[in-house]
């Protein structure tokens, strides 16, 4: 009974929930203007792209892969969208063109990782510079900032009287799909299996390379959607859009409890980490703390999440071994003396 309660409530998601509630309560009570409708709307809008990209990033890390070119794919898609609009294309055509660009970028990463067997960290590190460089080749150091009114309205308006901006709607539509796929489908189980042991999954009949390739393509698609959202929110398409955003996304995933070693993690924890980091960034901004200092804090959170994750792996392994030992010994073999307390007593 005790071990069941321990496993149910002593989880990383429970800790994150408590921490997020405490941080939000402190911000509302102690930080001026934090709880206003306008500020909440700005905070949610500012998290729109990070929330979107965190969805495929979570699946990639669970599958023992990573994509650090996500911000560059966002920027390239933004440039393609902006140039298409500037050249007279309709908004709808420009959006489709941008999404196809993101899918092609993701497929490029996937081919190098799955067909050529290159490490995703190295591949996407090179792609990060390459995709942003292509953006500079297409647009140079200039920008596109003339868009149809309907598009810019999408970037600044909220849903009715709520503080939820329209730019957050794509995440609200995609998040349930990712949750269902990861937690309720055979594809999700295969993704966990790949992260747990890729070779064992391959021997079990899982099409490991096909799934990993698909995850990179999905990552590129979602990054392109985030690029369109980013362009609408700032009414600006530039090759240097979203520089450093990949740091936030990776931190959100790891802080949310996704194991850097793969095979473990849930989107529930990632959503809580998203709220926590968005609130933290907003509080720092209201406290007149600039972007460089904010990046320092996010970097520290990334290191802490890695340390906590590694420690949790060791503690979890020790607890599992102890529980297995107790079950093996059993009461018929005496078990531990009653006078000596065990870890779960």
Describe the protein.
- The protein has helices at 2-9, 12-30, 37-46, 48-62, 70-86, 91-114, 120-139, 149-156, 169-184, 186-196, 198-203, 208-234, 245-255, 267-286, 291-329.
- It is globular and about 75 Å long.
- The chain has a single domain (11-325), classed as Orthogonal Bundle (ABC transporter involved in vitamin B12 uptake, BtuC).
- The chain starts with a helix and ends in a 16-residue tail after the last helix.
- With 345 residues, the protein is mainly α.
- The model is unreliable at 334-345 (pLDDT under 50).
Overview features:
ABC transporter involved in vitamin B12 uptake, BtuC, mainly alpha, 15 helices, disordered C terminus, 345 residues
Major beta sheet summary: none
Order of helices and strands: HHHHHHHHHHHHHHH
Structural class, by secondary structure, is mainly alpha
Indicate how many domains the architecture comprises. 1
CATH class type? Mainly Alpha
Whole-Å distance between the termini?
Answer: 11 Å
Write a brief structural summary:
The protein is mostly helical. It has one domain (11-325): ABC transporter involved in vitamin B12 uptake, BtuC (Orthogonal Bundle). It has helices at 2-9, 12-30, 37-46, 48-62, 70-86, 91-114, 120-139, 149-156, 169-184, 186-196, 198-203, 208-234, 245-255, 267-286, 291-329.
List the helices and strands and how they pair.
Blueprint: H1 2-9, H2 12-30, H3 37-46, H4 48-62, H5 70-86, H6 91-114, H7 120-139, H8 149-156, H9 169-184, H10 186-196, H11 198-203, H12 208-234, H13 245-255, H14 267-286, H15 291-329
Helix pairs in contact: 2-14, 3-14, 4-9, 4-10, 4-12, 4-13, 4-14, 5-6, 5-7, 5-12, 6-7, 6-12, 8-12, 9-10, 13-14, 13-15
